[in-house]
Amino acid sequence: MFNLLILKQAAQIPIRYHTGANNVALELVRKDKLREVRAGHDGTWAAQPGLIPVCMEVFSKNMGNTTNQIHSMKREDASTVTEEDLLHRPRGSRSLEGLRLNTRVGIQHLAAWLSGTGSVPLYNLMEDAATAEISRVQNLQWLKFRVELDGDDLGVKVNNDLFGKVVEEEMARIDREVGKEKFKKGMYREACRIFTGQCTAPTLDHFLTLNAYNNTVIHHPMGSSSL
After folding, report:
1. What is the pLDDT of residues 83-137, one digit of tens each?
2. For residue range 40-67, what is the model confidence (pLDDT) as tens digits?
């Protein structure tokens, strides 16, 4: 038995109001889809209907009339993967802007999730619960290990005081960006409470939305149904 291989969506979405930025976004999606099809994938997801022509173009050009690559694709490079490759520690810098973006995006997605929307466009990217999950886990790790922000030459270490100030400032920024009326009617304050609570928790919760379900699910007492 063989399974078709379909990869994730690219996060970029069409940018209708800016031709140049839109072309850059579409080219990033095109490169991502080309990498997927060359790796042996048989299909892909599209974050937005406007991306379907780009995805179809790449897969049709590289797969021709075949419906899958199960028997035609060979991955000799995969046979050389070692334990060291799988356990390779990520490299990169840590910045205050990264902490801010994690916080701002995490809160905004969770606010949308609490309102019944699973995926939401933020800063020209389609974000879902996985984004908020990554954001809160990274924030928690930076707080727990008091990491130094070395990416912008600040040299400060992440602690609860710094994080509290970042949360306050990013909530003010969200208020400005979405507008006071939407901010007031939305679930931003509740999302902020849940998100910051999970970032500063002594232990990592299994999943971000588990705690958030308490704000969306109505619990009915046993025997209350008339059916």
Report:
1. 888 888 878 889 999 999 999 999 999 999 998 888 888 888 888 888 899 999 9
2. 888 888 888 888 999 999 999 998 888 8
For residue 149, what are the contacts with CB-CB under 8 A and spacing of at least 6? Answer: 94, 95, 96, 99, 155, 156, 157, 158
Report the alpha-carbon distance of residue 225 to residue 203 in Å, rounded. 38
- What is the reported pTM? 0.78
Domain ranges of the chain: 7-69, 96-214
Name the CATH architecture for the domain at 96-214. Answer: Up-down Bundle (1.20)
Q: How far is CA 116 from CA 48, 177, 213, in A?
A: 18, 21, 11
Distance of CA 48 to the CA centre of its chain: 15
Q: Which residues pair with 122 in a beta bridge?
A: 125
